[in-house]
Structures are given as C-alpha cells and as structure tokens.
Amino acid sequence: MPHSSLKEAHLRDLKPRIRPFFAVLAAAAAGWLLTALLVADDWVAGLIAIPIWIAAGAVAFWLAEQLRARTDAQRLAESRLESAREASHDAVLRIDADGTISAWSRGAEALYGHGADELVGRPLAELLDEPDAERVVEAVRSGARLHDSMQQRRRDGTEFMAAVAVVPTGAQSGEAIVVARDVGELRRTTTELRNTEAKYRSLAEHLPLVTYVESLDCERKTTFVSPQIDRLVGYTAEEWLDDPGLFLRLVHAEDSDGVAAARETVDPARGIRLTYRVVARDGRVVWVREEAAMVRDEFGNALCIQGYLLDVSERKAAELERTELRTAEAATGEQARARQRKLEFVAEVASILGSSLDAQSTVAEVAALVTRDTAEWCVVDVLHEEGTVMRWAAVGTEPAEPGGETDVAEVTPASPAELTESEIRVPLIARGRRAVGLLTLARGEHAAPFVADDLPWARALAGMIAVAIDNARLHRELQAQSDANKVLRHIGEGVFHVDVAGLIRLWNPVAATIVGVSADTAVGKPVPDVIADWHELADRVPVGTPAEPARPATLPLETERGEWWLSIAGVEFGGGTVYAFRDVTEEHKIEELKAEFIATASHELRTPLAAVYGAAQTLLRHYFALDEAGRERFIGLIVDESDRLAHIVNQILLANQLEVGRVDLETEPFDATELIERVVESAKTHAPGTVTFDVQVGSGVPRIAADKDRARQVLVNLVENAVKYSPQGGRVEVGAEARAGEVVFRVVDEGMGIPDHEQERIFEKFYRLDPNMTKGIGGTGLGLYICSELVERMGGEIWLESEEGKGSAFFFQLPSAGEPSVLPRTLELAEPERAGAGSTARRLRPR
Asked: What are phi and psi of 814, to 5 degrees?
C-alpha cells in the first residue's frame, strides 16, 4: 500500500479522537475566559485558573474517551452476537429479566417453527414448561449461567428434548442470551450405537467359533477375543488378552513357523486364511481354521484386523477317514480288477484251449500266455497211459527251470496242490479222476510271492489244461473211428447244430444231459423251444468261423434242475452254426464262495480292527489325559480284540490247511472229564451272566485215543456256538458217555435252535445260520466246518439234533483208548438245583 494511503487511513482513525479533544480544549478556554472576566480579581488569579481548567478539560476528555470506547465495544459485541445468531443453526434468543423474548434467530425459526414476528415480545413460557421457564428467568435475573436439558414445544405441538444454555449479556443489562439445540436425534443415535455394539458382542459371544480383533500397531496386540476361546484351547479371554505371546506358544511346533510368517504381514485383499494345529491346555491337539480381514473406515483408512478361529478337528478327522476309505476302496477296486483280470485270463485260456483240438500246441500257447501275465515260468508235464512223461510246454523268462520229470510220475488223483511263495504245483486231473500230468508255475527273484488267492485260478487253469489234454485224447480216440456220431457221443462238451432255418439238426448226449432235453425231443425243433432262454443268450454267444474261432463266453442257463453256467461258443459255416459248450458251474461256484467268504471275513475282521484302531487312536491322542485305569482299560481292549482277530485268522488258516490236507494229527490217550472241565472253566470267563453251565459225565467213561488239542478245539467251538446262539441266556450242558468202544460228547443249549431245512448244510464251509446277521450274531462260517473235518480226520463222527426255538444238541464221538477215567463222574459247575433236572441229553438221542 502507498505511503499516502497509509497516511490517509491513519488520519481516518484519528478523526474520531481529534474532534473530542478540540471540543474539550475549546470548553476549557471558554471556562477560563469566563473565570478571568467574571470571577478573577486580577490577572494573577486568571493565570492560576488556566491549569485548573486545562486539568478539568483533560479529565472531561478522558471520561468522554472511556464512554466512547465502551460504547464502541458494546456495539461491536452486539454486532458479533447478531452475526453469530444469524449464522448459527442452533436457536438463539434474547430475553429480558421478565422472561420476554426480545430477539429471535433464524435457527430458532427452523427449530421451533415460529417466525420472529410471532414470538418477539412473547413470554418464554410459550416454548418451555413453566418450571423450566422460571428457572431460565431466574438465571437471567441473577446473572448466572445455566446449562441443562429441557423439554421444548414446537409450533405444531410436538415436543422434543433440547440442550439449553443461558448466557447473561451484562450485569446491568438484565438480559441474557438463550441458546437451544435439539439433542433428541443425538440421543437416539447414541442409543442405537450402544444397542448395535451390544448386539455385536452378543453375536460374537454366541457364535460356534472364536472371534477376535487385533490392533494395527507394531505389536499387533489383540484387543478383543470372544469367550469361546476357553472352550477351544482351555484359556480364558482374560488370559489370552493379558499374555500377547500366548497364541504363538500354543501353535503346534510343526506349524508355528508357517503361521508366524503368514501373520507377520496381512494382505489387504486376501487377509489371513490358514489351517493349522494348536495344543490346548489339557494337551489336546486341535485343528483350527483361521480367517481374518482388515477393517477400514469410510475413507479407506485401516482401523484394525478382525477374524475368527474355527475348530475343524472333526472335519480333519473326517478327511482322514475319507482318505482311509478311499485307500481301502482303491485296494478293493484293485482286488476286483485283479479278479477281473484273472477271469479274463481264464476266459482267454478257455478260448485258446477251445480253439483247436491240437492240445499240445494250445497248451504251449497257454503257457506263453501265463508267462506274459501271471508267472515267470510255466511248465506242463503230461503223463501218458503207458507211464511215460512228456513235457508239452516249458516257457519262461528266468535262466533256471523249475520242476522235474521224476515228480510227475508220482501224481495221483488224490495228490494235493502245493503252494509256496515261489512255486505252485497243481496236478492235472481229467474226467473220471484220472491224473494226466502236472502244472508248475514259478516266480522270479524280483516278482511278488504267490499267495493263497493264486491257488484257485491255478487250479482252474490246471482243470482247463487237463480238460484240453483229455479232449485231445478223446479226439485221438475218436479219430480212429469213422462214425462222427461216436465222436459226438464221447466228447465232454455239449454240441448242437443249428441249420440256416434255425432248426436243431444235431444234439449230442452231453447237451441232452446239461439242458435236460433228449435228442429225440430236441432234433427238428427251433432252438427257443428247447432252450427257454435262447432269445436272451443268442446275442451274447460269440460266433466265429473255422478260420477265426470265437472266444467262448461264460453264460448262465436256467433249466428244470436249476441254474448252470456254460462256457459256450459257436462256429458258423455254410450249413448253419455248430455250438459247443461245457459246464463251468463248479468254477463259478468257486468264485461265488470266494466272494461270500471275503465279504464275511471282511465283516468279522472289521469289528475288532475298528475297536483296536479306536482304542489305539484314543491312547495316542489322549494318553496324557487318561489315568492309569483308563489306559489299562484301552490296552486291555486292544489285547482282547487282538485275540479275537487271531482267533478268526487261525480259523481261516486252519480251514485252508484242512482243505489242502496239511493238518497233522497226533494220537494220544487223554481224559474226557478233564477236557470238559477245562473247556467249561475257560468258557465261563467269557460267557455272559445269563448263561449257566452244567457238566454231566457218565460213569466209567474211558480215555480217548485222538489228538487232544484238536479234540479240545472241537469242544471249544461247540461250546462257544452254544453260548453265541443263546442270546437270551439259559443253560448249556456239556457232557460225555461211553458207548460201544467210543466216547460220545454232547453240547446242549436252550437257544435259538436250527430250522429243519438248514440242518443238512450246517457243517458246510462258510455256511452260517444267520448270514445277514439280522440277529446280531457274527462269525466266519468256518467253526462247524472245522469241527466236522477234525472229527472225521480223528476217526470219529459228528451230528446234531435240534428244534427251532427250543435249542440244539451237538454230538461227536471219538475212539476210546479202553482205560476208564479216574476223575469224578460228575462235575457240578452250575447251580445245584439246576443240575440234572430234565437233562437235554436224556431227551435227545444220537443217530
């Protein structure tokens, strides 16, 4: 700004002050002049009056200046107050000592709905309740300040709560400024905020997971954690918040590094997503799923991290169980595929063997097929009727050759199959139980060892080779004859010829035997009239040509005598089609028995395995949480179920040994009474309390000449069966008596009994009275089969008598040694009043 302008501005500011000064100076001069002319007697007195009037003028100037400054300040304050009143959104009123409204702001108009012309000059009581209005007026009169919340009224009659402030304008003015602000909305917002916070805390505390909030400072301190943390890891929320390092100490040692690294920096987009293990206070290992995200305000600024911890232990256990199930399923599928490959292999072998009557060439081809798929060496030695041995096939990939010709000459129809880890030797038994040779299969050094499951298909292979050899022999015999009908009558397969019109022209005796329709009835009729299922079978029977024979298919055939399984194929030529088939029902039954046994054994093994696995898992996971008694209980369970597993496995092994004739028996004299006593005493330790035992041994029972351990095994199986098939309890009688050089044992129960139509099959292998376990009774179906086989091998006999619903009585007799027993005749092991009363042994008679 130019100097001249500054000077002008300064002069403008001085003008209001210079004018009063000259006015006072003029008044002082006028007063002195009047004093000098009218009052003073001489000039000396006039001179003395000059300073007095100057002083009076100065005092008057000072007083005028003070009055002017106060007036200016009052005007400035009023101007500022008016500006604030007009600019404020709050209601601003001026009231006097009588409570009359003297000023009304625009904010007051918006708050109360009244214009200034309506309320200026009106009493304050029109806006407030009378007690509140009197309090405000009293504060105005006393010049005191007042701050309080008061109920207010609008023009439309509605009431609201407002914060009222009374500010006096001056001690002498008797006026005050009243400022009112609507606080109802603020209170509602505050209440809603508190309610929202209460709802959030209630939700967080009742969710089935742990919620937490972490600050974003350098320490990442947890500021909130829900009470569910106690249920998750055994520490309270207070302990969790007081110890910032507790979380990382609880993380499993194998997961701690990964968790610490993942939580060190939080990805704003993905947050935290982790699955790891924590160790609870009681030692439990808990799988936890943690997810967290960064919380931001409306401007995008990070406020905190909020997340949750979810117990996923059950889900992890389920995943583990699913993995195990998938593994078992894969193993089962592999077994099924292996069985399917074996079936396909057998079918291919059948096709090869059936493709030509030159048995030696087909056997050599089959041997090559065997070495390609199942073994490293395949040797087929054929025994001719004159006693000479000829090696038809010897195919292998290893340098050494198994087997030997000297063994083949000793093969008989009774020779058993031999199985070792490295070799299988199966005799070739043709029709009529005639030994025709020996099949030898060998593994190499690096191949998997042979197992029991390999023996059935090896027998099937040997059977087909034997049939092929036998067919070749028949073919050679029939070639010497000129009559083609003789060939067909002696062939071991069913053969029939269907002409181009679909009528049967040839029907050999084997076909008549299998189908059950004679040649006289079949010849000249359409095939569907003779074979009822031909419409369904025709499309499934493979048909080839003499140059390219078809591979036989194994198909079921329903006849009046039941279901037969046939290996059938056809050869088409100019005069129609010739069908050849053979009975493979026994081979099919072998597969069915195998499948049934696998299902039964799997069920029987699964229960103890599950118990052992569950007990072991409990000990593994909760070992430190269990007391000594708890650990002993689970260890005892593992021992008991392991014994049960061993018993089942031993039964299976013994049944297999019995089947292949590898059970060695030793004959020694032993006492029947002592045997019964020990078996019953052992059974009582495992039998339920609802079952009682009664031992009844006849007088003069001689000693027995048999294998003592095997006899005890038979008696144990029968007693265990009596207890098992008496689910409602009852009396089990075990006894023995002498009869015509034999000792007859009996085991009588009052259980379920056996239906008449089931009794003939009760000693069959794998047969069970309750195969579907509808009554909750388990078993492999081998116990009574083992009993029957052992008794027969010891030179005895076993039988039963039973009535459904009333119990069963099993008897078996063994040769005696001729020496009477020296032990007491009767052992009372049951309640005295029950012993000998209505003895079942007296009611039932052995056959």
From this structure: -130, 155
